[in-house]
Amino acid sequence: MSAGPADLSPLIAATTRWLTRAYAAPGGPLGAELAAAQTRQAVTVAAWLRYPTDLDAALVLGLGPGGSARLDWLVGADCAAPDEAGDAWRTWVDEVVASWAACLLGDPALAGAAVTGALAAEHAGGLPLEFRRLTAPDDSDRRAAALLRHPDLVAPVAALHRDALLERLGPPAPPAAGDHARAA
Amino acid sequence: MAERAHGGGAADNDVVALLKRQHQQIKELFHEAETATGDRRREAFNRLVKLLAVHETAEEEVVHPAARRALEAGDRIVDERLREEREAKDVLSRLDDMDTDDPDFLPTLQALRDDVLAHADSEERLEFSRLQEKTSPRSLAMMAKAVRAAEAMAPTHPHPGVESATKNILLGPVASLVDRTRDAMRRTMGGKD
Ligand SMILES: [Fe+2]
Ligand SMILES: [Fe+2]
């Protein structure tokens, strides 16, 4: 079943579009595609963490992801301008998922932990998926997402729901050296 | 195991059929970009850039990790494919910076086409066919779904609940509504906390 009630891809695609438009890097079409690829991975990981089960996904798709209104207001009027694809997609934007994705793009260590958590979600289906454009970007990826990966620039969006993300991921694993110290 | 036959709608349920179809589309777009001129060449090249970017990203995300685990010498086979993909990305980046009327554009594009089609051929012969033999139809279908999700476009129709969602934003963050409903449902169903 590809377009079942638990298919998060409209939410993921719309939230990706919002982030890439709000933090578009200058440059040609390749840069735009490279930015979109890593953002889509960040948004996918964020969405699977936020709505890990089919029930969660059905719920947000039923109630509605909330739309981009507050995000548009937050980053200014520029990206609220109509685009060539119309404005309907904005109703599929999820503010929490956008905020979590912004946190992940700006923090590689957090992104690694988030991927581990996301792969435990029902949506991963047990597949050994890799999100290396997010966790191991090369130079061209970084150039294309210079604004999206700049912690200061995405701070207003990332700060909205960062606490909830940290809570969701739990405390970082204690360093192994600490275990030895306690054992000694 | 005998070779499975793939009919018309196979790409919906089989990641290998889906990716092979994209290889064909990539080949056609190269041809279009090479034969067109002026604005039409630029436009065809932009579509090629887009298709190559989503295709290689989806392979790297979904198929290469599975092949690494499922195939004998999977690491070697996948590392080779990843190296080819990196090299193609570098050439694509050079072309992206070039004017399509630049005398170097067409020869560079043709060289890239040869490399990308050779890469696609290696994937099909050395990686995909073996993965198909070693993977259950259910997993192949799940991988196809993951690839399609990775390539999904933003919806062009509004969410059906858009009016109430707007109201929710006025009342408070919609996020809390989802959380409250989720908690209530879990309590009702006696499921997770
Ligand atoms: Fe490839
Ligand atoms: Fe390929």
UniProtKB/TrEMBL annotation, chain A:
It comes from the Bacteria. It comes from Streptomyces mashuensis. This is Uncharacterized protein.
From TrEMBL, chain B:
Residues 15-129 form the Hemerythrin-like domain. This is Hemerythrin. The lineage of its organism: Bacteria, Bacillati, Actinomycetota, Actinomycetes, Kitasatosporales.
